[in-house]
Write a structure and sequence with these properties.
By secondary structure, this protein is an alpha/beta fold. The protein has two domains: 171 residues, Peroxisomal Thiolase, Chain A, domain 1; 149 residues, Peroxisomal Thiolase, Chain A, domain 1 (3-Layer(aba) Sandwich), CATH 3.40.47. The chain contains eleven helices and 13 strands. The chain has a five-stranded mixed beta sheet with strand order 1-7-6-4-5, with helices on both faces. Strands 8-13-12-11 form a four-stranded mixed beta sheet, with helices on both faces. The protein has a two-stranded antiparallel ribbon with strand order 2-3. Strand 4, helix 4 and strand 5 form a beta-alpha-beta unit. The two termini are 15 Å apart. The structure holds coenzyme A. Coenzyme A binds next to helix 2, helix 6 and helix 8.
Length: 330
Amino acid sequence: MSLKMPETVLLGTGYEVPEKILTNHDLEKMVDTNDQWIQERTGIKERRIASSDLTTSELCTRAARKALQDANLQPEDIDLILIGTVTGDALFPSTACYVQEKLGACNAAAMDLQAACAGFLYVSTVADAFIISGKAKVVLAIGGEILSRIVDWNDRSTCVLFGDGAGAAIWGAANDSGKGIIDTYMKSDGRLTELLCSYGGGTNYPMQEAIEKNVQFIQMQGQEVFKSAVRAMSEAVLTILKKNDLTGDDIDVLIPHQANIRIMNATVRKTKIDENKVYVNVDRFGNTSAASIPIALAEARQSGAIKAGQLVLLVSFGGGFTWGSLLLQL
Ligand code: COA
């Protein structure tokens, strides 16, 4: 197996989730649902929910501080802060600017990028491009969400799925160690926008109008999203493997977007990756959108579930539709 020499290396990771745990049994008291239905259809047992005084930028900042510590770097070492989020603190300024201020990252440019649940793969791909081009040496890439604020807590078909949290990675210019980002892949299909969306506060439906028309929350056509998700994730896995002359057997660990255990299982069946290689934490955190992959990546590094020398494949999909994959030599 001969892999491309990476130009971008992973220097550190960290994640932060709110303290409050909302279990399936708690949800039974809120909507007409039950623990068995949720576990069988999604694999979720519990999720974290932010208290009303917690902001997305605060979750992101806490995750970033842990990643900086892990990388043994200071805030002033960061050249660029990129945040994937659909639940930023405000329409503008960007959540990245709030994080820049909270960290004291005085040398960093800062911006948000919107690719829904694929947000972290998108920001990491942009980080890789900035580093390859020489425009940045150290990039802080974050996925962070407080989805509980845009979920309709009366809609049992969506409110059981989502959770809050943030994950951060520090990407830096690689030496010739062979470790780092081997390849990335990104795609989109805007014909599928209406399958999964939230209109509140956009220019199509300014907030007041969105509330009057009751379109301010996450809307989803579950079964269609499910099918598209399996198709997109499988395509992203198979494409990046083929581009790099690899097969599923060469991958040590697959970290898929933690939306639903059945989507993950269907994806590994279609791509012929051993299901024992799949990292899963959806049972504890639910779907945290852009935060899902970086939380899983940070947690897996911290627990030793992934380690130096392993070839790790990240794959995600989300509203838009957006999807992608990232091949990482640890
Ligand atoms: N508890 C109990 N019953 C529920 C329920 C809940 N939380 N939510 C829906 N139901 C009911 C439905 O009303 C329906 O009842 P009916 O047969 O009497 O009409 C029944 O369960 C089946 O609903 P359906 O939507 O067909 O279920 P499903 O097997 O498709 O599972 C999802 C629903 C949402 C779990 C599934 O479609 C899914 O995971 N989709 C992808 C979602 C996702 O990952 N989104 C994020 C992408 S980033």
